[in-house]
Amino acid sequence: MTDASEPVGLIASYVQGFFWILPNLIVALVVLVVFILTAWLAGGAVVSVFRHRNRPDLGRLLGGFARWLVVVLGLLVVCAIVFPSVKPVDLLATLGIGSVAVGFAFKDILQNWLSGLLILYRQPFRRGDQIRSGDFEGTVEAIEPRATLIRTYDGQRVVIPNADIYTRAVTVRTAFETRRSQYDVGIGYGDDVEQACKVILGALGKSDAIVAEPAPEALPWELAPSTVVIRVRWWTKSRRDNVVQSQAQVIVALKRALTDAGIDLPYPTRMVMIHDQAKAGGAHQWGGSSG
Asked: Helix, strand, or coil here: 259?
C-alpha cells in the first residue's frame, strides 16, 4: 500500500509545484515577449541610424549584435523570475564561463565577425569598390559578418573570410578617382627618339578614354637588343572597364600614328646557325687492327 501511494504523492507534488510557479511562468513569458519586441526595435533603430549615415553594412552588423544582446539579457531576467533562488551574480558567472567555452568552440566565426566589424568601421574599401586580395580580384558586392563577397571580372562570386581580408594586403583599385597605366613601345635604332615621343603624345591626346590631368608621358626607357624602348604612361578613371578600353585604344592609336610617321616598329630577330655534324665528324678517322 505504501509503494502505490508514493508515485501518487510524487505526481501531486509536481502538480502543486507547477501551480506554485505558474504565476512566475506567466510573468516570465510576458517579460520575454517584451524583450523580444525591444530587441527587434533596438536592432531596427541601429540599422536606421547607420543607413542615414550611408553605412548600411555596418548598421546591419551592429543591429544584429544589438538584437542578440537584448535577447540574452531578457533570458537572464526570465531565468531570475522563474527560479527566484538563483542569484543574478550566479547567472552572470555561468554566462561568463559559457562564453569562454563558446569562444573556443567558435573561434574562427568570432574572428571573422570582429574582422568584419573593423573593416566596416575603418572602411578601407566599400561596397562597389574594385579590390585585389590574394589571387582574387573583382568588385565588392557585400561585406557580411562572416565574409566579404567579391564578383570577379569574369562573372564569378568569391567568398573571402573577413579574417583573411583584414590580415593580408589588399589592393583597392578604385581608392582614388584616376589610375595610371603603361605600355612599352619599341622603335628602331635608326629612328629619331624625340620625334617618336612627340608622335606618341599626339596620338594619346586624341583618345577620349585618357584624362587630361595628369598628362600622359612618353619616356625613352631602355636600349634593348633590337629596339629603343619608349615607356608610354597615361591616366584613366580607376574602374577596370575604363583601364581596359583605354589600353585597347592606345595600342591602336600608337600603331597607326607611328606607322603613318614612318617610324619603324621592329620585331625581335633571331639568328639561327645550323652546324653540320656530318662534315664536322668527317675529319676524325677511326681505325682498328685485328689480331
From this structure: helix
Global confidence as pTM: 0.66
Report the C-alpha dihedral over residues 229, 235, 241, 244, rounded to 10 degrees.
-10
Instruction: Dig out the grid coordinates for 35 from the structure.
Output: 524583450
Residue ranges of domains in the chain, CATH in brackets: 21-105 (1.10.287), 125-172 (2.30.30.60), 178-260 (3.30.70.100)
Cα separation, 140 vs 131, whole angstroms = 7
Per-residue pLDDT of the chain (291 residues; tens, 9 = 90+): 445 555 655 565 655 555 566 677 787 788 888 888 888 888 888 888 878 877 777 777 788 878 888 888 888 777 777 777 666 666 666 655 555 555 555 677 888 888 988 898 888 999 999 999 989 999 999 998 889 999 999 999 999 999 999 889 999 999 999 999 999 999 999 999 999 999 999 999 888 889 989 999 999 999 988 899 999 999 999 999 999 999 999 999 999 999 999 998 887 666 666 766 555 555 444 444 343
**265: nearest Cα among 177, 181, 202, 200:** 200
Counting Cβ atoms within 10 Å, is residue 99 exposed (0-12), middle (13-18) or buried (19+)? exposed
Q: Which amino acid is at 264?
A: D
Distance CA 198, CA 205 (A): 11
Residue 122 bridge partners (DSSP)? none
Grid cell of 200 as nine digits: 606618341
List the beta bridge partners of residue 143.
148
Q: Is 123 left (phi over 0), alpha (psi -120 to 50) or beta?
A: left
* Cα separation, 255 vs 264, whole angstroms: 10
